[in-house]
Amino acid sequence: LRREALAQLQEVADPGRLNDLRVQYLGKKGQLTEVLRGMGGLSAEERPVIGQVANDVRAAIEGVIAEKQAAFDRADTERRLAAETIDVSLPGKAGARGGIHPLTKVTQEIEDIFLGMGYTVAEGPEVETDYFNFEALNLPKNHPARDMQDSFYITDEILLRTHTSPVQIRTMQAANGKTPLKVICPGKVYRRDDDDATHSFMFHQIEGLVVGPNIRMSDLKGTLLQFVQQMYGAQVQIRLRPSFFPFTEPSAEVDVTCTQCGGHGCRMCKHTGWIEILGCGMVHPKVLEHGGYDPKEVSGFAFGMGVERIALLKYDIDDIRHFYNNDLRFLSQFARM
Ligand code: PHE
After folding, report:
1. Considering the entire predicted model, what is its pTM?
2. Mutation test of ligand 1: which of 137, 221, 247, 309 has the most ligand atoms closer than 8 Å to its C-beta?
3. How many other C-beta atoms lie within 10 A of the C-beta of residue 291?
């Protein structure tokens, strides 16, 4: 049996055949197993002798099977290693890399400039109550200026915010009367406009608010000059034109010298040399009161700018809709800037 088994095992050339032989000799119904099973019928003297022989045979067969199996495993590993070799000298495939959206980029730039002046960033909800969006900002019900910002109402008292100014009230109330308060508030705002090259039902604003003792209009003007010069270059100048917002008094609109022609006059500034970039003013006493401050003790200034507008001017983009269409031909121009 031993000789026959070892001879057959020597010739095995594949793992399947090896397994067949293992079953044939050592399996439950295998030839050697049968011999061991028959030992019950032997005499007491024969049993240890035959048992010893049978165990030796089993050990020999198992040994050869293990050797063969190891050889097959080794060959298999080598075959796999050869097949899976990586040619490290092949040129790589470049994955498409995303970029930061130009509006995000400009928002971050604006945030950085104001963070550098000691401001913190605050955010508020896009779904807002009438109180924060209008009432607390000195726009009582039926105030004509409410029409200036045609709104998306959800209920009578809840709407999509039409500007970031409600975050002024929220941050003042959260500050609990503490001064100085210096925040900027970026975010989405919504108005019922028909979309065109310069209008969108959704756009982005950044609000600024400073509250403290003796805050004056000159502080506002200096702050804005500092901002536009960091944003557009040290040669840029500003001018303030009187304007009206219910939540600031006095109010102003701010122009910068045209970022395209430097103020000489071109198509972009309609040959005036100036381009409007934001609205601002001194925080109205009633607004300070809604924020929990005593207007006899503190004063403040606020401003609000459209991020799209700042970005259009900075990158000379002709249509606001480019920002929302996600056309890679547009977006990829900003990916590596
Ligand atoms: N909230 C105003 C707007 O959306 C902008 C503004 C903010 C004006 C703060 C003055 C002060 O038009």
Report:
1. 0.74
2. 247
3. 24
